[in-house]
Amino acid sequence: FRISVQAWLFFIAELSLPVVNCTIKKYLCKDTNFRFFIFIFVDFMWSKEEAKEFRVNFWNGFKRYCSGHRIYRKWVLTGVKIKSVQLKFYVDDRKALVLFQIDHKNDLERYRVYECFLSYRKLMAADCGEELKWEEDYTGIDGRVVSAVYFELPDVSIYRQTDWETIYAFFAGKMPLLEEAYWEYRDLITERLKGE
């Protein structure tokens, strides 16, 4: 991997900053009226090839997890029959998601589809639980703006293999809930979109 060393100088009166996933050396310099904190830390960055290898190994591991736990279902994912909507597994270096992603190029159309989903929010919450989140403009997937109905598992990383089992269990537990919601409300949402 490639090591990137960054130095940050903070001019602070009284402040405590949490810095995670890095090695920190803290130097404190006191003056009569203020404090200087200098944080020098090493941030580990992966090359494109190494990141790709991690992703391939991660998803192969998920297949093995499903097989080992006798999960032989075929996930719906891109087979959703609602225009501009897909069911999706997502993981990056900060979180994992299981979601309905609504990503029409036209924002007004995206909002229209999202509003149709939103009209079934209470029913979906009853089926999926109150931890199901709703965002009209969500930017947590590669910085793109989409609408999302999702479950989130925070503080996990695809680059930490010790997190993988936790992520796999999250995926396997939450996706069936969204798939059931899809089968339950698909025709209602489709008909409503046609009628508008």
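the 2nd protein, sequnce then structure:
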Amino acid sequence: TVDEVVGTPFTNYIHPDELSKVRERYHRRLAGDTIGSLYETKLKRKNGSLVSVEINAGLITHNGKPADLVIIRDITERKQAEAELRLQNWRSVLFNAIASRIRQSLDIPEILNTTVHEVRKFLQADRVLIYQFDLNWDGSVVVESVSSEWTSSLGVIIKDTCFQEGSWEDYQRGKKMAIDDVAAIQLSPCHQNLLS
């Protein structure tokens, strides 16, 4: 509420990573430096979560002293739209690169190697691979792009008990899963063992 904010230091609401930038702009404005009034930063909400904002700040006089008039606008939706647009642009670039490679060569291994390399680069992932199942739902890694600090799993035969128990049906119906940290998420024991 307004009552909770009035009289409190503005630094209480700035994300720690952004504090020095916001503070510097504030002091430069009060010192009379010519500085752009519009910039983006991150603020902390009352519950501690972060929000992307656009700040429009200008110097005014209040009770005979210089003061900062600040208009804050939540730009979370705009930032999400920008991120989605970047993703769409990258997808177009990726598909064009793959299509170009396909036109240059009908060599399937080369096309698949290009695909995993480009996808790993886009996702900034440690490893991207293509896993081929056999009739028993075991399988092996047939194509891989992996960063140098990791051991390659190319050609490794994997016994996937999750798929043998029927979880392949979920993925056949379109299930997708993205996991940042295997240890931090609740998985079935077979899935945990496979990913670790």
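The two ends are 47 Å apart (CA to CA). The chain has a mean pLDDT of 82.
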